[in-house]
Amino acid sequence: MVPVAATAWAAAWIATSETMAGFAVVVASVAVGIVVAALRRSALVLSVAIVMTAIAGVGLIDVYRLRHGPVAQLASHEAVVSADLEIRSDPHLVDAGGTTSNAAVMKAATMRIEGRGGSWLVRAPVLVLVSGPQLQKWFEVPVGTRVVVDGRLQSPNPGSDMAAILRVRGSPVVVRPPPAGLRLVEEVRAGLRRSVADRRPEPRALVPALVLGDTSGLDTALTENFTSTGLTHLTAVSGANLTLLLAFLLTVARWIGLRGWNLRLLGLAGVIIFVALCRTEPSVLRAAAMGLVALAALGSGSRAAGVRNLAVASVILLLLDPFLSRSIGFTLSVVACAGIVWWARRWTMIINSWLPLIVAESIAVPLAAQLATTPVLAAVSERVSISGLVANALAGPFVGPATVLGFAAAGASLISGDLAAGFGFGAAWSAQMIIWIARVGAQLPGSEWHLPVTPLTLTWLSVSSLVLALSMAYVLARPWLSLLLVVILIICLSGGPRQPGWPPRDWLLVACDVGQGDGLAIRTDHRSAIVVDSGPAPAAMRSCLDRLGIRRVPLMIITHFHADHVDGLIGVMQHRRVGQIWVSPQAPVGPMAAIVRQQAMQRGIPLNSPLPGTRAGVGETELQVLGPVNHVLVDQDESSRQNDSSLVIMVKTAGLRLLLTGDLEPPGQQAILSAGVDLRADVLKIPHHGSAQQEPAFIAASHARLAIASAGLDNDYGHPAPRTVQLVRSLGMTLLRTDQNGSIAVRLQHDRLAAVTQR
Q: What pTM, to 2 d.p., does this model score?
């Protein structure tokens, strides 16, 4: 069944690619398969051809239905419509275009749609993107509610399982509440949240995430800790998570004497409750199928039967939804379950020869899943969680109790609030142990290794994981070798791999490669630096500062409140002491400003807004605030006003002058020029990632020898713009850019300006 499942996956992926070349490949492959099957009288090849034909056919039909219906046609013209929708998922905050987090997405299905003079009764899946002042009202709409909204349709990317994207700025008009069944589910989910309402903030947020996959309450710091330690799967509706839940439930049942069909019925009841409370979404059904396959494999002695069951389940799921072939979640579920099926039972039996069974399962199951999924996770996130092996093993014994007690609290909430609170107390304490494990693991210097995603690194990682998995039975059978492996792991956790020559020991300024955003570090002392902006993601900023060895940040400067300068703030604050934060005195108030103030308040960090002309010193480093300067704003949108509120700082260090400009646009640049301030510098951080919107006189007034453009590889904005690249080079400046050169370190070499790049 493995070749059949692999072929099914490939056929589904090609069929949903929406290309004629893909269609031709499927037709040719089926034709060749039929010919080979006839010539060689091979049942296997014939089965592969039949499955490929069936799944490719279903995929093509689904694509045609999504791309040729009235919703898709209206979306192709970006029509303004009135839509009657049924909400299918909870809203989740997203980064809207790199400038603000004031947006949310949710899945819905159209019931009726009106636009361009027509009206249709049509059921089609759409992704609703909500922004604007009415956003909070959408978080009050439960799943299953029928609403009427006005918005603009847009076509999704090729390969999407949505017929359209519906952009909405207004509030929903409720026309029908959810059905009775969904109202009961929502009441139970609310009862779980009430049962832990009196607990500490972190376990109060984590318990619903462990039980229901409800991550709405998780803060950025906790999420980043879970990501660093490879525990993110615990907060998602995953097959591995269901496996841990059922394994704990059935282990307890065996202890109290249940056997045979009673055990099977208990496991089935657990799955039904899991699916009901997490709602019957495709991801939940996928997790249930994979969890049952993995659990069956743990309870039987046949690895081959487990792999066969996994392959059959994969084919069935792909037949029901060919778009799963493009889902990273589906890929991780299948790969994790394959690792559990093939390795976990054998490893459990080996470890059980010298450790108790519950400890053996707690080590073997997450270890098998972690090794199997490491290459896939690295390909997606560009990092490898070293602490994940230990963190998953340590957290395993607490996942089952937290989840089971959480389900008990949810059910008991329908009977007694006090009884539910008792179960919630136990679930919260189990969750607290997981939180401590994630926090300690994330603090380790080698908790995660950042790797460039290349065919070579992914091949090396895949081969290494496979070799380690194949040798694990031999190692686990010998306690002294297991202890040696633990020692090696501890050494790896003490520090990640170092790139030779990076960073240079005498660096003064580093422009971190944080993707499409800004993140700068200015050295002030040993293990101490001023940080200017934090990029769009905590992981990238944290990795850069860790490689530089920064442990103290006496001054954190947020030039303005856009997500590509602020969203990585947790990466700076985690495990580092921050003395104070500067923000722009003219920055428009918005959600990003509230996040910065909240994080500063939680950590007791002073927040200041320096005015132009302000001077300050940190060690031997001097700073002067040059902007923003008040100027008349004519026909500027909200994003441009935020850009022009950027703090502009002149930094003097070791005899060098560094001009840091945030995302300042031409009106702001002209205002600073008119103020007559001295802009002469050795190094210029080009405004707004090198966008085409620049004031040439401002760039020329810097007389810089080195210009740095901080931009993401293949970014959607085309930064740095060719016009700006030509401008700085025509002025005799050397241009370095993070999208091509990686992180950039500025230093003095024999009292002359020099730079070292990471690539």
A: 0.74
